[in-house]
User: Fold these one by one.
Assistant:
Number 1:
Amino acid sequence: MDDDGRATTDADAAESATSGARPFTAGVGYLGFTSGSRGAPQAIVGSAAGLLHFVTWQCKAFDIGPDDRFGQLTSPGFDVFYRDLLTPLLGGASLCVPGAEQLAGARVLDWLAAARVTRLHAVPSLARYWLRSSNRIRLPDLTTTFFAGEALTDTLVRDWRSVTGSRRRLVNLYGTAEATLAQAWFEVPADCALGTQPVGTPVPGVRLHVRDPEGVPCPPGTTGEIVAESPYLSYGYLTDHGAGAPAGPQLCAPLTRHGTGDRGYLSADGLLHVVGRLDREVKIRGVRVNLDEVGVALTGHPAIDTAVVVTGTDRAGDMRLEVHLTTRARPAPAPYELRRHLAESLLAPMIPTVFHMRTDYPLGLTGKAAPSAFVPHAAAASRTSDPNGPPVKGGTA
């Protein structure tokens, strides 16, 4: 009953509870979240048209049909889950969902083989973990693997093809959750280039540009911010409009232009390459350093599997670079050897001072390695900086 003694119904209560709420604008299809690899995940109001546009393109471009079996390995709540779920359903394919016990690193490849999965979306860090944790059994049914979320290196391409076969299709997808699923794609050839693979060309309906800080297009080979333009972008972030105001999305048209925050460049052949995040740039001894770019250079060493570069502080209180590594070789290469490798392509301030050898990485819910998970070590605590190693020309000791 209310304060006047009148009887109230469940419908009255529901109306009262939602009287301050605002409905989503027409065209909203889903809520997704950023990966959280660089902070707390943010909720994104996704476009139904954008979602349908991407999965329709993927079905047609890769001839997905009733004979296909998709592996569903993405956590719900992130936009990639919709790609896992809706692409096979739209294409008439089967969706294979593992049990919790089959998601353990050592069992994933066994499950993929037993379920006869033919198509798979995967994050590079997770794929490396599966390979390290298993006996690398063959996956003869897996015809296409779509990698996304992180840099795809030639070493992972070779390792993955060692279990799928050299003629199987590997596709490098690129995009941000704010721009809906993926905006670029590149099919990795059998004789892939060394180092990080390009992300290729835009999917239909998307334009990708590389711009300098003033918004001027960058010439080929010059790095800048990657900007996406499309009628299929999201509606932006789900925001709280302040005390006393109802929470909900900003009621506006979907975005048509999105600065991704990623650094990249166009090569002479028109392919887009991603080199890092704008928010992962620091200054070391007056030189601007992109931490992701240093990590990519390290994975170009044949013994290095993965590398996450973070900043730390030396005894004098000055900023320094530290890197957390997993290696493909035993024993691991000495830090002086890695410094020599980096000195071939990087300036001296870009070369890490401290190297932390690890057996594994902490991964987030999306399977990405999160730089925020690596706590900088005090200078006195590090035993891997190898200050007495052979000097490196142009590098740091």
Number 2:
Amino acid sequence: MSCRVNDTAISYPHSCHILGDNRLAHFFATGHFLGRALLEGNVTGFHLALPQLKIILGQPVSLSDREFFDPETYRNLVWLLEHDGVDALGLDFSVWEELTTADGSTQTVVVDLIPNGRDVEGTDPNKAEFVDRKFRYMVFESVSSQLNALLKGVYEVVPPEMLMLFDAEELD
């Protein structure tokens, strides 16, 4: 997935596809390319989203990092935390994903963020957990196979220990 933030193209994996081995090979190759560029001090010409950079560096990712590549979702999640009346929004602990298969057809699936999440209402008392689960799903769980392939490619070229010397801004 690519999006534009402040006129900068940002890249981050997207969960909209049912990925096969071939697609994951592209993420591995991208990671390998990034690792080589880092090792040789080259500029790649594209930017990764802040959470992705932090994941590569083994640094913690927070909700505020989401603002850098998806400001609207970030604002909506923060709004939930700061306001009462979440019960009236009809939220539950699930997300709907539209997946595209290898043959190009689409299907919509419901993914529970917690066990039986589609049956658990979002309320004021559990809104912090809702925001945390939704954030974790969007940043990690929904794209875990893509992120793992990317990391495998980077770490094949540059050991994770060497990356500890960088921060996300330096890596970008």
Number 3:
Amino acid sequence: MRHAGRLFSILLSVVVLAAACGDADTSGDTTTTVIAGGDTTTTTVSQTDTTLAGTDTTTTTTGGTDTTTVATTTTTTVAGSPTTTTPAETPLLTVSDPRGFSFGYPASWTMEQDTFGDYLMSSPFTSGSDLFAESFEIYADPFWDGTADEYGELWLEALGLVHDDLVVIAEESADIGGLTGYILEYQIPGGDTHTREGYVMFDGVLYNVYYTGTIDEYPVWLADGMRIWDSFSFSG
């Protein structure tokens, strides 16, 4: 298998990545106050049911007629993924790479670039007991001479050879950075990982973008991870 060595080296990185970023809040409480004359004011304190599409709002309603937005959250749709809502409280910091692509990442995340030019972003730690953070990586492979689909299929094959508990959630062509690419989403229960990867060719180079975390914590930072994913684009 061509480039199998590189594929398996990436696999080792995926398998050892784990996270414990705190449990997501799943409560959904409301308070109701009776106003003289029979009107009521209902204020949503926290909100858990999400469609992961568009923007959800928390509202205050008086007398059943006037509605005022008091909080806004941004959510993202990911086919086959668990759902979560993360408040879009931090702006995106923009990075423009001379190779012809750009992306943004939340200001609350950390970002580093290695000597090969690859980018690694990590979510904030949410408690003193956290050992790892969820992460998002942008990796370039200038030596790949096939298609994005072929790379993804080889990677999935390599994963299946090493992990007999591999659970494939999604495998399909999709838009990545404004170009047609290939996505995989999968879980490896034995390694406690949940990963969404995208592969796309640009200017003769294969780009791999992915968000990964533990199975339980993957949904906690999913909205932020997809903000990075959706901001990734090519300029040429």
